[in-house]
Structures are given as C-alpha cells and as structure tokens.
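Obj: model holo form, ligand = S-adenosyl-L-homocysteine.
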Amino acid sequence: MLKKNDKIAINIDSCTSLGSGVGKYNGMTVFAANTAPGDHAVLHIIKVKPNYAIGKVEKIIHPSKMRIQPECPVFEKCGGCAFGHIDYEEELKIKAQQVKDNFKRLAGIEIEPQPIISGKNDKRYRNKAQYPVQSDSNGLALIGFYAPHSHRVVDCADCLLQPEEFKKVTDVFRNWVRLFKISTYNEATHKGLLRHIYVRKAVKTDELMVCVVINGNDIPFKDELIFELKDALPNLKSIVLNKNKKDTNVVLGDECITLYGNGYITDELCSLRFDISPLSFYQVNHDTAELLYNKAKEYAGLSGNETVLDLYCGTGTIGLTMAKDAKQIIGVEIIPQAIQNAVENAKKNGIDNARFICADASKAAEMLKEEGIQPDVAIIDPPRKGCSRDLLETLSKMNPNRIVYVSCDSATLARDVKILEELGYNPEEVTPVDMFPRTPHCEAVCLLTRK
Ligand code: SAH
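Output (holo structure tokens):
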C-alpha cells in the first residue's frame, strides 16, 4: 500500500483535463502535476486517498518525448498554465481526446470530434488579464497570478500569454503601490484597498483599457497614477475604477466610474466593430474567436430566412456576425452593460434586424415562447456551468431545427447534449477549439439537429 512520504518510480501514461500526469502504481492511480505522458519519474507521495494518490516530482528519470523546456520563469509556481512543459501539438491532441472522452464518459455518446481548431499563436494571444494584488509577509506589494489551488499571489513581471504592453501596466502599478504605500486587499480580513488590476486590449484597433478594482470608493494619488499610465501607454483609451466592496471571490463589482476616456474600448471582430465595457464579456483570444464564430455560422446553416435566437449573447457578437445571413436575430444576456453594448453594436454596424433582451436566458426563452417566437436556429453559449434543464426544455419546446452549442467546458457540454438528445435532438458534430493554449481549458462547438 502507498503511504504518505513514500518515494516511488512510476511511468506516466496519460493526462487529466487539468494537465496533470497520471500513472498506475500497484493498481493505484497516482496524479502528478508537471509530468507528461511518457515520463518515467520519481515521485514523492504527498497525499493518499482510498482510490488515488498525489505525488510531487522529485526527479525525471526518462523524459517524455512530448516534453519541452518551459519558457515562463514562473511556470509551476503560477496556476495559469498547465501545459507549459508539453509540446503544443501534443497539447492539442490531449485536448481533442478530452472532448471525445467527456462525451463518452459523461453522456454515453460515441462521437469522433472534428479536427481541433487552433489559432496561429500559443503565446501572447490573450486580450484580457485580471491580476490580483496582495502584500507578502514583509508588506511588499505583489501583482501577478494565484499559485495552483490557492489564493496566494505569485508576482509575475511578464505573462507570456498576455500582450507585451500589459507588463508596462503592472510595472506602473507596482511602482505606484510601493511608492505611495497604497494598501492592498487581504481576503482573510476583508481589509485593504487595491484588489485587482484588470487590463483589456482591443487587438485590432490597438485600444487599451485599464480598470482598477478597489474595496472602497476612491483611490489616493489618483492623478499620479493616471499620469504614469498615460505616459507609459500611448494607446491607452480609458481608465476605469471598479468598486467591489463585497467579501467574495468574484473579481468585479457592479459599479464602474470612468477616470479617463469614455469607459469602453472598441474592437473589430469578423469585420464588424464592437464596443466593450469593463463588465461585458468578450472572447479573450481574438483570432481564435473569429475561427470559432465561423464554425458556429457554418453549423447554423443560414439561408437568409431564419430567426436566430442567440442566448448568452454578451455584447451581441455571435448573433451580429450572422445578422446579414438571417431574417432576424434575438439576443439574450443577463448583464445590462453588455446588452447596452449589444444595442449600440448593432447600430454601429448598420444592423437593423437584431433585437436584444436583458434577462436570464431561461426566463427570456419562456417569455419568447409565450410571444409565439419560433426560432429556426438557437445559438447557446453559456458560462462554464452550462445550461439549466429548464432552459433546455423550454428551448426544445420552441422547436428550432438546429441548436449550435458553444461551450468553454466540454464536461457540462456533454451533460447538456445528453439532455438535448433525450428532448429530441441529434448531436451531429462537435469541434474542439483551442481558445486558451497552454492553460487546461478548451472550447468546443457542437451542432445538434431536430430528430
Ligand atoms: N456569446 C458571447 C458571450 C458568451 S459568455 C460571446 O461570444 O462573446 C457567456 C455570457 O452569458 C456572459 O456574457 C454572461 O454575462 C452571460 N450569462 C451568464 N448567466 C446568464 C444567464 N443566466 N442568462 C443570460 N445570460 C447569462
């Protein structure tokens, strides 16, 4: 039997969805982060449970052929990337396999995914970062990312997934916080001012927005901060203060105050222009989002006569990119600022066949059904937790011919597809989309048709 503190030599033969290596030792499953399938490694066992154990790598005896030298200096210390030590082509195979496995394991559906879609870049592809701020035991302010499975901040000078200029933003903040002794938020005591630095870039138009998330109403030495940010970043379009006084893990509060600029940035996606407010969702990987939207549009199979329901529409992006090929678009989204953006975005792009509703998706679907709306195509793009059964039932009663399900978690996708199958829909195709290279997450889009 394995015991805590044992040292074992083991072959790693697969990988979890979180990028952790998996091997068998005397019949027992052992997980070890930062190992790769094909490694022969010595592990220090740090936890033993009835069905599995967790080990920490002591030594790699034979490295897997999948291995590469991680480029990031804080890889392993930071909880962001899971595949930094694995060749990107191998990561794509692992992610595609996971989508297939989730359909089989969680839904009992045998489906061979279409070839995984990925963009050109596995680095510097993100357009958004939310850096937690914390003080270490000496009171020194740290700005970076959480360590794996914790809320301890690892200072990060330059994340390789972010645009290079985000480093200038965090540099300005580090200096400002340290120079003016700005207090940093402490989750345990719920005291301290500065919680997060949130940066967003419209990569096509080169507009940058910086958002300061605080546990309070205002910041001291504001003019100094604004001056330094503008000085360091010629493309800075807006600076926003976000108040989050709640004792919560959620990064953003509900209230935004514009300190500089107009409070939003404008990007170009699929040849349309989109205003994006700080509280509105926007796909984090611009180029791969275009590939995803093209696939969603192909699955929608539009001829020009369709009513398209775009549930969880954010700033209206998916529906608006389909508007010219459909009769009408109805977008539904719960965040008021995102709906405001969506309405403006339709106008801005000269689209007059789109209507937007600010409501919970499930309630809005019920309301639209009562109104007698019969969508030909429904697009659903929920957060990671997926859809409620209520929503899927209402949707099936509205009887669209096609459902295009866009998902950032293939486990909840598989669960919901199984429900839709029971409600009379056939899963025709699923395409994994690597929206988040190097991290454990993978997007997927699935086409279902009425049986
Ligand atoms: N389709 C959009 C946004 C997808 S993200 C795009 O591609 O950009 C998921 C969106 O669902 C977010 O904008 C979130 O605010 C919204 N949302 C979360 N819960 C919701 C609910 N219960 N009802 C409607 N929208 C919801």
